[in-house]
Amino acid sequence: VKHGDAGEDLYGVLRGNLKIQRDTPYGLFKLARLHPGELFGETNFIDIGKRSTDVVADSDCELAVFSAERLRELCDEHQRFELAVYWAMWGSASKKLRITNRMLAHYFSGDSVGDGDRPTSVGVPKDHGEPFQVDSLAKRDMFLEMGLSHMEANFMATLSKPERFAPSETIFREGEPGNKLYVILNGDVRISKNIPGTGEEALAILGRGDIFGEMALVDGRPRSADAVAHDAGAELLVIRDPVLAGLLDIDKLSSPRLLKVLCRNVAKRLRVLDEKIIGWYMISGGNSTVVGGPDEPGF
What is the pLDDT of residue 54? Predict the structure, then answer.
C-alpha cells in the first residue's frame, strides 16, 4: 500500500516480512516491521481515511487480502464475527501504538529502548483522583455522544465511577499495571512520555468524550505513557477491567458498538503520533538513529 492512497482492505501477513515506512525529504523513515501473523491496513478500515504510510515487502512474502466491502457485509450478518474482527484490529492497532511510543524514547536518547527498560516516571508517587457526584443523566448523555446505544449508555453510566483530578495531577504513570479505562467527562488530559535527559514530551491533549488507558487492558502490559490532568483539571468516568471485559466478551456478544468506539480511538491516536514523530524527524533534518529502528520484533 502507498501513503496517501484510498483503500480500506485489510491485510494479513502469511509469510515473509514487510516494512512500514514514509518517504521524507531526508530519506525513508521506517516506523515498524511486520511479521507473519500480523495485520496491516486496519486503521483505514476503521476510520475510512487515506493510507498514512507505505507498506513495502522486505522479502518474498504472501499476504491474505480481506475485502473491506465483504468484511463489512459479514459483520452486519454475524455479530460474533464482527466482534472477532474488531478485537483483532484493536489489538493490532494498539500494538503499533505501543511501538511508536517506544520509538520516542529511542528518538530522543539515540539508544535502543526495550520492554525491560524502566521509564523515568516509574516509582514517582502518583496522585489519586477525588470521587465526586455526577448526575447519571449527564453520564448517559456522554456515552450517547460517543455513539453507544441507549442500553449500552445506561449500562456504562451505571457501572462507571466519577473521579476528579486537579490541574497537573497524575492519573497514571508509564510502566504501571493498568486495570482501568478512563472517559473524559469534562476538562482535558495530557498524554505524555518522560524522556531521559529531555523531560516531559506531550503526545496528545484529549478532551470530552475521549477514551484513554485502554491499551493496558487489551494486552495486559504496563502503561505505555503518563496521563496527567491538563491546565483546567479533568473530570473522568472510570471503568474497571472486569466491567470492560464483561462488555466486550465475545461469548456474550455484549457491546460491538463500544468495541468500534475503542478501535476508532486508537486509530486516531496512532495517526496523530505517527505524524508527530515523522515531523520531529524532518525538523531534525533527518539526524536520528531511529531510522531503520533497532533490530527487534516490531521495529
Answer: 94
